[in-house]
Write a structure and sequence with these properties.
This protein is an alpha/beta fold. It contains 12 helices and 12 strands. The protein is globular and about 60 Å long. It starts with a strand and ends with a helix.
Length: about 325
């Protein structure tokens, strides 16, 4: 069977199957100021697992001083109902975090850098090169333990301090993460300023240094471009995308702006394109409704809200 299919518009080949990395339980919830209970986090992960998502960011082992919302990561990972074949990921900035992730039976460890020198200095108080050097012992330990290692590159399209980021800066960090032994590398639009042509350029340039099938797109919807950027990335062969159920998570560098693209919206797009994901959209919609009601927030997914309204209308 061919791995790619022609798009209806003839714009280019589209992949037949895409992997969705669900980041809501970690990247989405960590931005919440009010503490979300461990029980709710566990229920959310379980619902997403039942929906068929094969990779879920479930925890973060950073200092509770900096991210208090994620202080119960070990409890979450110990209480979830694991499904064979599902990867449960944890963010780990240092060896202490890795050891906690290992003890909690995380399947994948995530380290994070930036394509912007200024962002790196202001976010983690070191240069890009220094940040990668700090991850070297973590990467070695991850490989020794037989776990997957994923690297995430913030500000791959734009920086709140430097503005537009050149593709060459992203490619350089891709090389560094490749040399660390990363199994997968995320190209993240942290402030959501990416546009379709820029996305295609960065993805294509990065794929010359790292296998395209192991590059992932992490798009924020600050300017309403996330779905367009995903389609653009699909057209140049990207097959892994991050999303957050109910659009959980804000953009900390653009006050009041939306953050992560909603999983429901991405699934609706892919369904319309005839691209397989192995994920049950209805169950994700239910999970989005559950977490939105549980934390008292409006559901950030347009598709999720529309499908819920249709279901309620049909049942009334």
């Amino acid at each position: 069977m061919a791995l790619f299919q022609k798009s209806a518009s003839g714009a280019g080949a589209l992949p037949r199957r895409v992997k969705i990395v669900e980041v809501g339980p970690r990247d989405g919830l960590q931005a919440e100021k009010a503490q979300v209970s461990t029980a709710i986090k566990v229920e959310l992960v379980n619902r997403l697992t039942a929906a068929g998502l094969s990779n879920i960011e479930a925890a973060s082992f950073v200092s509770p001083k900096w991210v208090p919302q994620m202080a119960d990561g070990a409890d979450v990972l110990s209480q979830i109902d694991r499904r064979l074949g599902t990867l449960y990921s944890a963010l780990t900035p240092n060896l202490r975090g890795f050891e906690a992730a290992l003890e909690s039976r995380a399947d994948e460890v995530v380290v994070f850098g930036a394509a912007s020198e200024t962002f790196s200095q202001r976010n983690i108080n070191c240069s890009i090169a220094e940040s990668i050097d700090r991850f070297a012992p973590v990467a070695h330990a991850v490989k020794e333990a037989g776990l997957r290692l994923r690297g995430s590159i913030s500000c791959s399209f734009g920086c709140p301090y430097e503005g537009k980021i050149p593709a060459s800066a992203v490619v350089e960090v891709v090389r560094r993460f490749r040399d660390l032994g990363c199994d997968e590398i995320d190209i993240a639009d942290t402030i959501g300023v990416g546009t379709a042509n820029h996305v295609q350029q960065v993805v294509q340039d990065a794929s010359r240094e790292f296998p395209l099938e192991r590059l992932a797109g992490h798009f924020h919807d600050t300017y309403g471009q996330a779905l367009a950027n995903i389609l653009a990335a699909l057209q140049v062969g990207m097959t892994i995308f991050h999303s957050s159920v109910a659009g959980l998570g804000g953009c900390p560098y653009a006050k009041g702006a939306t953050g992560n693209v909603a999983t429901e919206d991405v699934l609706y797009l892919l369904l319309g394109l005839g691209i397989e994901t192995g994920v049950d959209l209805d169950l994700v919609v239910a999970a989005g409704s559950f977490i939105s009601e549980s934390i008292g927030k409006d559901n950030g997914s347009r598709a999720g809200r529309a499908l819920l309204a249709r279901t309620r209308s049909e049942s009334s």
